[in-house]
Amino acid sequence: MNIVMRLCPRVLMIAVLASGNLVLADDLDTRVATVLKATPLIDGHNDLPWQYHRRVNNHLSQLDLASDLTQIERPTDTDLPRLRRGRVGGLFWSVYIPIEGYGGKPSAVQAVMDQIDLVKRLINHHEDDLELALDASSIRRIHKAGKIASLIGMEGGHSINNSLASLRQLYELGARYMTLTHSKGLLWADSATDTPRHGGLTGFGELVVLEMNRLGMMVDLSHVSVETMRDALRVSRAPVIFSHSSAYAVTQHARNVPDDILALVGKKRGVVMVNYLTSYVSEPMRLHRVALERHQAMLNRDYEPDVARERMSQWSALHPAPEVTLFDVADHIDHIKAVAGIEAIGLGADFDGMPPGPVGLEDVSTYPALLKELLIRGYSDQDIANIAGENLLRVMTDVEAVAARLRTLETPRDDLLHEIDRMHSAQKTQ
Asked: Which residues are annotated as catalytic?
């Protein structure tokens, strides 16, 4: 069915619930608005800070968040007018730095500090709309005051350059989660999209998780291998998150979460914040991307660049990308609910860190559309509140409580990676 025909019933006066009841579209809008007035909608991962770095070298004056950024030459997914239309109550600004160029280098720490500085300057520059949040209670307070709670999430453990001391100082600067890996594996953890080297976490990797627990920093398992997921879930004394991942059973991408891990996350009161990236949420799109990349690699191998580009254009014309819509994202939410329970679901769209999103979820203004679709599928208002933000707030509260207890029992560790992993390897061979 054409996407316009599929979406039209959701924007006309009447929508049909799965139960067969009729509900006015205005009623859906009212229900969503009521939920989001009481509960902040929190997105687990927004990459706009990297857009500032990549496009304008972190010069705030050259990319005005308060303006309509759909009108610039390369529109962003995020600006303040659209955040307000999307009824966003909080989000994690990702302080991403690429592992290429920074992995295993002291400069990684400075690079991520530069991104944290950018986020804080961005918040201060828009103080009428944004405010830095450091814990669950401050998110609720900021949301009640009518502002958008702004949190900091580090994407990739290479940001700490194998240093627990750096981890602690980045926490002091405001980082409230760290994704253990990004696209490549580390000396202490395997990535989902790289050749495994350790079978999960090394001894030092386990210490990183434990120190994050002690600090009150959420352990983020997006991007990590399944073995790293299992190790982190085994080791962590607090609930974990996936800041921007979806369900592997629905779309078989390595970045997604298999059912056995989903079940563990549910049992351990964690949360999977569903990603919108089209090849993560649509199996036909994933297969199309695989075919495209294979064909591109073959052309690059066999032809000169100009010829390869021409032939790739011909191939793309003959093999158009399949349509991906908000309904595909909702299907992932349905699956996670079935496997892990309603309390294990959040939203982590990955805006400004991905190609164009699904139809109906093109930018940060569109969160209500997804929530209305869930209402149409029979989700309750409390379910919507849980998915929008209550689940993540519960995880943060639990992480903070664990940290408060551990800080009375443990002191900061000063272990070095090579010392710990040498001992860890020796123990494994005994």
From this structure: 45, 47, 155, 182, 223, 244, 350
